[in-house]
Amino acid sequence: MSLPVEAHEALQRFEQARGWEQRARLLMQMGDTLAPLEEAEKSEGNRVHGCESVVWLVAEQREGQWRFKASSDARLLRGLLALLLVRVQGLPSAELAGLDLQGWFTQLGLERQLSPSRSNGLHAVLQRMAELARNPR
């Protein structure tokens, strides 16, 4: 499975980062690139449960490919969401369902920095994506 261009670029930036401080700065910069959600999109139906922070996920499928928007009230988590989105944008349902999230964050050098609650939160987001992929509206 090849990486989307944006995911490849993100991976290169994180591979060049020296230490957690640089990676944290990159994460926050990534979070700032997320497209803002409309107030109407911040609904209970788009909320991802299983995260300590508030996280919203908006998904639509166009021509067999998934497009996502996400946001959170936590700045670091917005960066993690941005990294997840660059990895999953445009994937068909089968690839999305089979994505190795742990492997992606290991490649980025972030697996040790993910607290159990952040890791659980990201898995909740990925599970929500996989559910949507199995049962598109």
Describe the structure.
It contains six helices and two strands, in the order ααββαααα. It has helices spanning 5-16, 19-32, 75-88, 93-97, 101-107, 116-134, and strands at 55-62, 65-72. The chain has a two-stranded antiparallel sheet. A hairpin with a 2-residue loop joins strand 1 (55-62) and strand 2. Helix 2 (19-32) packs across helix 3. The model has no long low-confidence stretch (mean pLDDT 88).
- Give the overall silhouette: globular
Biggest β-sheet: strands ordered side by side in the sheet: 1-2
Order of helices and strands: HHEEHHHH
Q: Let me know the number of strands.
A: 2
Oligomer: single chain
Summarize the topology:
Layout: H1 5-16, H2 19-32, E1 55-62, E2 65-72, H3 75-88, H4 93-97, H5 101-107, H6 116-134
Antiparallel strand pairs: 1-2
Quick overview:
Helices cover 52% and strands 12% of the residues. The protein is built from six helices and two strands, in the order H-H-E-E-H-H-H-H.
Question: Key terms for this structure?
Answer:
137 residues; mainly alpha; 12% strand; globular
